[in-house]
Amino acid sequence: METLLGMTLPELQEAALSVGLPRFAGKQLAEWLYGKRVCSFEQMTNLPQKGRAALSARYRIGRSLPAAEAVSADGTKKYLFAAESPDAGGKENYIESVYIPDDERATLCVSTQAGCKMGCRFCMTGTLGFHGQLTAADILNQIFSIPDAGKLTNLVYMGEGEPCDNTDAVLRSIEVMTSAWGCSWSPRRITVSSVGWLPGLRRLLDESECQIAISLHTPFPAERAEMMPAEKKYSIEQVLGLLRQYDWHHQRRLSFEYICFGGQNDTLRHASQLRRLLSGLDCRVNLIKYHSSGASAFRPSEAEQMEWLRDYLSANGITTTIRRSRGEDILAACGMLVNSLQQHA
């Protein structure tokens, strides 16, 4: 049985034709799925009952409610969802997304894979291994099915997985969110994070207009390779070489995520190299407090050291901010999403 959620307008038109409905019913399907965000065919009241029955026999909508929820003292909420496809062993895959309210802004951090292949040493998700790709329906369901879906102002693809290793599904979900027949969001409200997985990153740059965030974490390639194995496949120099081919001043924003580890990447040596590495590139650096899991050899930087690093980079022409820490009591920080059901299975 095929899933409607995640289909483009032409695909929905073909789905309508496949059950004997006229082509224009595809636009009605898009409105029900992405405009009104219904969960059942019976809610599609402007379609004939016979057509709804035929759709129900051949297709599923693809919506499901969260299986579990955790709420932080600061209002951050973490949701657990079941994915469409099981893992290689036939077990049900679970993924997590995080809702972050902040005054007038409400951001959802979505997952793109069940687990992750990248193996970053500081990331708890990486310890789970890779369990499978998410579909566009899986990604969109996270967005549509949380209780606060109507309050969302921004999306960040920074949850479980490497978005540029699942580019087809990520681009499809972005198309749904930004198209006039979909949710009509501005791509400026969407940020996709990557370790710098070049083939997918190049496609993301060429086929979308969303904001880009690169996980950097140290300016030295040897240190980065030790911390982030993806550096051995696609070096940060290669990543920056690609990024410098695009116009970041007029089109969209480029940022670098930099988790601060005490004594390991927050020194003057690192700050000086970071300044040289990013020289001439229109970008910003987001300094992030490390949320220690207790099982990692990494430790967070002191607040004063993060402030020094921010001031040093800003004084040297690199716009730098310290990201406000959220959801630490429920392990909700980006890069710390943990699938507890799979972890303990």
Task: Outline the secondary-structure elements.
Blueprint: E1 2-3, H1 9-18, H2 25-35, H3 49-58, E2 59-60, E3 68-71, E4 77-82, E5 94-102, E6 105-109, E7 113-115, E8 130-133, H4 136-145, E9 154-157, H5 167-178, E10 190-194, H6 198-207, E11 211-215, H7 221-227, H8 230-233, H9 236-243, E12 254-260, H10 268-277, E13 284-289, H11 303-315, E14 319-322, H12 340-343
Parallel strand pairs: 1-2, 6-9, 9-10, 10-11, 11-12, 12-13, 13-14
Antiparallel strand pairs: 3-4, 4-5, 5-6, 7-8
Helix pairs in contact: 1-2, 4-5
Structure report:
This protein folds into 2 domains: 59 residues, Orthogonal Bundle (DNA polymerase, domain 1); 276 residues, Aldolase class I (TIM Barrel). It has 12 helices and 14 strands. The two termini are 28 Å apart.
Secondary-structure arrangement, i.e. CATH architecture of the largest domain = Alpha-Beta Barrel
Biggest sheet statistics: 10 strands, mixed
Radius of gyration: 21 Å
Order of helices and strands: EHHHEEEEEEEHEHEHEHHHEHEHEH
Mean of all residue-level pLDDT scores: 91
Shape type: elongated
CATH top-level class of the largest domain: Alpha Beta
| Largest beta sheet: strand ordering | 3-4-5-6-9-10-11-12-13-14
Count of DSSP H/I helices: 12
Q: CATH superfamily membership of the largest domain, which one?
A: Aldolase class I
Helix/strand/pairing class, anyone?
A: alpha/beta
Beta content: 15-25%
Count the beta strands: 14
In a nutshell, what does this entry contain?
About 30% of the residues lie in helices and about 20% in strands. The protein has about 350 residues and is of the alpha/beta class.
